[in-house]
Structures are given as C-alpha cells and as structure tokens.
Design brief:
Structural class: alpha/beta
Shape: globular
Bound molecules: ligand C2E, magnesium ion
C-alpha cells in the first residue's frame, strides 16, 4: 500500500510491487525470446463433438513449455502478449502452426475436420490481417473451409465497420467465425446481430454454474434459443460431466467441448480419437 513520507508525498514504491514488475519484465523477455526462436510454443487441440459424440474438429489452444516454470498458462501470457504487442508475432506463429496442422490432416485424408483458432483484438485490428492469413492458406495449400476463427466481444469493440468488412472478406474465402465467451462481455444483442457469425460459444462459466439455480439453467436455455433464432450453431464449452452433456443436448446445443471428452492435447494425441472422427 502507498505510504506517506514526511513531506506529505505518496511513495508508491514498495518491495512486493518491485518484485511483481521484475517478474513481468522477465516473463516478457522470455516470451519474446520464445517467439523469436519459435521454441516451446505449441498448439494443443481440444476436440469438439456433435450430439452423437463424433469429433467434428478441434479448438487450438496455445501452450508455452517454459524451461524453468514448466507449462505457463495462456491465461497468464496472452494478456501480457496483448499489452506488449507481442501478440502480433505470437499470433502469426499460431496461425502458421494451425495451417501446418490442417495441412497434415489433408495429407491424412482428414478433410472434414475444422480447426478453430483464437484471435485477439490487436491481431484482428492489423491492416494486413486478411492478406497475411490468405497468404498462409495458399503457402500451405490449406482449404479455408477447414479453418474457423474465434473472436471475443473485445474484438468487436474496435471499429465495427472495419471488423465487419474483414469478417466478410474472410468468409468469402470460406473461413468460418465463432463468437467466443458469449455472455461474459458487454455487447448489446443488436450489436452482435450485425455480425455474420456461424457459431456462438457458450462460456465455460455458464456451463460450470448451470445447475446452481433454475435461473442459471434458464440463462443457458435462452442463449441456445437466441443463437438458433439468429441462425447460428451453438458450441458449449466446459462440458465436464454427463449431466452437463445430457442437459445441453436436451436444449438442442449443437456441439460440445470439455474435459468430459478430452483436455487440450498435443496434435498426435488428438488423432488418437480418430475412431470417433466423423
Ligand atoms: P477460450 O478460447 O475461451 O478457451 C477455452 C478455455 O477453456 C481453454 O483454456 C480450455 O482449456 C478451457 N476448458 C476447456 N474445457 C474445459 C472444461 O471442461 N473445464 C474447464 N474448467 N475448462 C475447460 P486455456 O487453454 O487455458 O486458454 C485460456 C484462454 O486463453 C482461451 O480461452 C483464450 O482466450 C486464450 N487463448 C488460448 N490459446 C490462445 C491462442 O492461441 N491465441 C489467443 N489469441 N488466445 C488464446
Ligand atoms: Mg476460444
Ligand atoms: Mg471461450
Ligand atoms: Mg476465454
């Protein structure tokens, strides 16, 4: 906490704060290094299933294998990357790894699987985002139909006309769009309705708390109905139990993702689910 010295000024310095700043600076330097050397950053895949438990694709989730700290959570380093601008280089790396994965699927004949990747606001804001992604698809000879982009409401808080324009351009290429973490942001519904999403993802937190009260159950039900009324498919995230799966299925939820089926795993481990591939 800030302390007053004799002169009536506020001293903001204290050791714990210096510690935290030092840690952050170190983490930033290490992340920069990891991005530059392309070392230790790997996309993990979490299967997405339909109501018959057939795997229809996966969400790509970045993992950082840190030499000293072990696995660092994206919840820790994605915000840091966003604040420092490192998300641009990191995002390029993620998009390229995603194309490599789809390329490999192509070679294995897995041409129906769709890979969803997360895109942060500063990434999507780049003037050349569409061109760069299009070039990658060409470079790896990857069909755009096997790629889906997950955007959160924070992306939509930018220049809306620009966002819509980019989404439309990318959709014309065949790329699909999912609205991630639905219900956790501040967007108005009329705002969201302007956007040509294909899929709406119900946030983990809604599914986790679903059975705490009838009100919470009703919220999930309402989200599914809303999405369907708008012509969108619904993915439920954070499906951890059979009870979750049963209830969400009964609501007409289209796709499911969660620890009940699999945690995010490295790509070769994802393919071990192949007998369930659609
Ligand atoms: P998200 O995109 O909403 O991803 C879903 C998160 O829920 C993932 O956390 C996933 O591991 C977790 N999850 C999945 N199933 C369950 C479940 O059954 N129970 C629980 N409790 N959690 C489950 P993760 O991998 O730690 O990623 C956290 C967030 O970091 C992501 O949220 C996304 O916002 C961001 N992120 C992860 N990878 C990337 C990336 O490649 N690029 C960008 N820009 N952001 C990423
Ligand atoms: Mg996501
Ligand atoms: Mg999400
Ligand atoms: Mg999230």
């Amino acid at each position: 906490e800030a302390k007053r010295n004799g002169m009536g000024e506020i001293r903001l310095y204290h050791p714990e704060m210096a510690d935290a700043i030092e840690k952050r600076v170190k983490l930033e330097a290490e992340l920069r290094q990891a991005i530059e050397t392309r070392d230790g950053l790997e996309l993990y895949l979490q299967p997405q299933l339909d109501i018959n438990r057939q795997v229809i694709g996966a969400e790509a989730l970045i993992r950082w294998h840190h030499s000293e700290r072990g696995m660092v959570s994206p919840a820790e380093f994605i915000p840091l990357a966003e604040e420092t601008g490192l998300i641009i280089g990191l995002g390029d790396l993620i998009n390229e790894q995603a194309c490599q994965i789809i390329r490999q699927w192509q070679q294995l004949g897995l041409t129906d699987l769709v890979l969803s990747i997360n895109v942060s606001a500063p990434q999507f804001q780049q003037m050349d985002f569409v061109d760069k992604l299009n070039s990658l698809l060409k470079q790896y000879e990857v069909p755009a139909g096997q790629l889906k982009l997950e955007l959160t409401e924070s992306v939509l808080m930018q220049n809306l006309d620009d966002v819509i324009h980019k989404i439309k351009e990318l959709k014309q290429l065949g790329i699909q769009f999912a609205l991630d973490d639905f219900g956790t942001g501040y967007s108005s519904l009329s705002y969201l309705m302007k956007l040509p999403f294909d899929v709406l993802k119900i946030d983990v937190s809604f599914v986790r708390d679903m059975f705490q009260s009838v009100q919470k159950e009703a919220i999930v039900q309402t989200i599914v109905q809303l999405a369907h009324n708008l012509g969108l498919k619904v993915v439920a995230e954070g499906v951890e139990t059979e009870k979750h799966f049963d209830y969400l299925s009964s609501l007409g939820c289209d796709y499911f993702q969660g620890y009940l089926f699999s945690k995010p795993v490295a790509e070769p481990d994802f393919r071990k689910h192949s007998k369930h591939f659609k």
